[in-house]
Amino acid sequence: MDNLKNLDLNLLRTLSVLLAEHNVSRAAERLHLSQPSVSVQLAKLRDVFKDPLLLPGPRGMRPTARAESLREPLAVALEALNEVMSPQQPFDPSSAILTWKIAATDYSEATVLLPALPLLRESAPNARLSVVQVAPRLIARQCELGELDLAFHTAEEAPEGLRRRTLFKEHYVLVGRPDHPRLKRRITVEQFCKLDHVVVSPDGGGFAGVTDAALAQTGLHRRVMLSVPHFTFVRDVLSRTDLVAMLPSRLVSADAGLKVVQAPVDVPGYEMVMLWHERLHRDPSHQWLRELIGTAINTAGQR
């Protein structure tokens, strides 16, 4: 790269035209420059390459051996530079062959990726998704290193320094099996506390969450009898036992195998956000993927 430090790249274009025309006047006409300007540039080129490059002959100027050796690599270099400086081409999902790396919990797999997947498969049939488990403390670093293209997380716990887009706002509902004897009618907060609950503890083994924090503000506590790390297991637990759970509404809103009721305790909800690094913000394929996910989420929310 040191060889380019003091080089005006326009000189390379002039050299290419001179090697094609073998004539300063014709080269000047093609370059829309004056003949003296091209002569000055040729002098600079001779100094750069330490070679005459073009010598007077009976029928115009003739290239030296050094100039002939430059002809092919010069053409390749100029074509590459032109490609670098050309406007970015629009992304065509129908012909794209690529892999997107996405970090998601089982909750965001069900509420974000699953609604987007049919549209993604239809629009970009040759694109692949690599979905990995979210590691909240590593998201920013993984995005910076290019190990992740997108991540889904709650806005409150999302790391700083990443681009974000809010996908939806979520709230909690009380869920149990359809014939649960305690959910046949509206229950009081005291009755709620006496039910046996299951909680999802992503870190593993915890028996308290946002519901317990809300209850504690009024001096109440509930019976948490089971703690699991994933939402996917909770559905089977609820359908086969008398346990109940406070779950995000989008996870269970269309599940006919569960009974969903309004909880007698006000539990704060959260925002689900999509996260990505600045280096991908203007990439056409990444912009397309983000828009597709946003469209799919909006469509699912209107059903």
TrEMBL record:
Query: What is the top-level taxon of the source organism?
Result: Bacteria
Q: Does the keyword Transcription regulation apply?
A: yes
PROSITE patterns in UniProt:
HTH_LYSR
Q: A Pfam family this protein belongs to?
A: HTH_1
Give the Gene3D superfamilies listed for this entry.
Answer: Periplasmic binding protein-like II, Winged helix-like DNA-binding domain superfamily/Winged helix DNA-binding domain
Please give the SUPFAM superfamilies that the UniProt record associates with this protein.
Periplasmic binding protein-like II, Winged helix' DNA-binding domain
A GO molecular-function descriptor: DNA binding
Q: Which residue ranges does the record assign to the HTH lysR-type domain?
A: 7-64
Going by the UniProt record, its keywords in alphabetical order are: DNA-binding, Transcription, Transcription regulation
Similarity comment: family membership: Belongs to the LysR transcriptional regulatory family.
Record-linked PANTHER family? HTH-TYPE TRANSCRIPTIONAL REGULATOR LEUO-RELATED, TRANSCRIPTIONAL REGULATORY PROTEIN
Its protein name is DNA-binding transcriptional LysR family regulator
Q: Which organism is it from?
A: Paraburkholderia silvatlantica
